[in-house]
Amino acid sequence: MNEIQAISKVLSPNDTGETGAHQAGMLIPKKGEILSFFPKLGIENKNPRSELDFYDETGKIWTFTFIYYNNKFFEGTRNEYRLTGMTSFIRKYGLKAGDTIILSRDSDGKMLIKQSSVAKGSTSGSVLKLGSSWKVVRI
């Protein structure tokens, strides 16, 4: 299987903080191709995580945390993956529900992040819909 090089997500009101609810980052689907974009996290430890550095179009580094809330295996109830620590990025670019973020890797493995605002126009390229607001992008 080829490694996924780019994924996108249409932001929800929860992702952008528009609902006022406290969310621990964007929910990542547990199955399918989207999860394979991120590093593998095991269930041996409670809530394993990996810090990921993404570069925006200006070259600024944004550090997000990919976390597996797995306390279901430690007498809890949660069993979900999330990408957290994105609030500053979302606010800096004034992103709202309906806007899109694109996470990608260049040929050297450097992780990149881009945003596309509904007001600014949509992202070009062929997109494979996966039945959620997450998509695999062919760039």
UniProtKB/TrEMBL annotation:
InterPro entries: DNA-bd_pseudobarrel_sf, Rest_endonuc_II_EcoRII_N. Pfam families: EcoRII-N (PF09217). Residues 4-86 form the Restriction endonuclease type II EcoRII N-terminal domain. It comes from the Bacteria. Coiled coil: none annotated. This is Restriction endonuclease type II EcoRII N-terminal domain-containing protein. It comes from Cytobacillus oceanisediminis.
